[in-house]
Design a protein that fits this description.
Elements: H1 2-16, H2 22-91, H3 95-113, H4 121-143, E1 146-148, E2 161-167, E3 177-182, E4 185-187, E5 190-193, E6 195-200
Parallel strand pairs: 2-6
Antiparallel strand pairs: 1-4, 3-6, 4-5
Length: about 200
């Protein structure tokens, strides 16, 4: 009897151990596989998102670089314009003063033209003083770049001349300056007053 009991216990013990079936192992492998697949999918998804983010940031960086270059170019152009404007102002800063002085020069020239042999000695001496003052003023104006426009017996040029009168004269081609009625002046190659002239027809 003791042997039978022992056999029963052994058989009972053997039946109590759970058997691992192939299906459970497959299930575990499948679980491992699905986790790995999910992990791979997440990594691929993150990689795609990272690539998209890198592309977006690269594009944004290029746009910002282009904007910075355009801003730099605008600043360079602005500086050039300002420098040219300042240089132009400095070059022609005396223009208003010169324009105010030109009528005085004209009056001196008219007075000097009166000097001829019929004048008395006192008036001639007085006009000599006028000539000295006139010469000083002309020298000062020339020192600052003011020059009279030379146009007598030259072709009429609307950039420098203003035609006030026309006259037909034999032996003279049409469009020639016959007489300067009022001198024109240049300030460093800029016309500040056109010469009033008589032109041949």
């Amino acid at each position: 009897m003791t042997e039978e009991v022992k056999e029963e216990k052994v058989t009972e013990e053997v039946t109590e151990i759970p058997e691992v079936t192939e299906t459970e192992e497959v299930k575990k492998e499948n679980k491992k596989g699905s986790f790995a697949d999910k992990l791979k999918d997440q990594i691929a998804d993150l990689t795609n998102k990272s690539k998209a983010e890198i592309d977006r940031l690269t594009k944004e960086n290029e746009e910002l670089k282009n904007e910075a270059l355009m801003a730099k170019a605008d600043m360079v152009n602005y500086r050039k314009r300002k420098d040219e404007e300042v240089e132009k102002r400095l070059t022609y800063c005396n223009e208003d003063l010169v324009k105010e002085l030109l009528p005085i020069i004209d009056n001196f020239e008219r007075a000097i033209k009166l000097d001829d042999d019929d004048l008395t000695d006192e008036l001639s001496k007085f006009l000599e003083g006028f000539k000295m003052v006139y010469c000083n003023q002309v020298n000062i104006l020339e020192k600052y770049g003011v020059k009279a426009i030379d146009g007598n017996n030259k072709v009429f040029d609307p950039n420098y001349h203003q035609a006030v009168l026309t006259e037909h004269r034999e032996g003279v081609e049409p469009g020639m300056v016959l007489e300067i009625l009022q001198k024109g002046y240049l300030l460093k190659d800029k016309v500040i007053r056109h010469a009033m002239v008589k032109v041949s027809e």
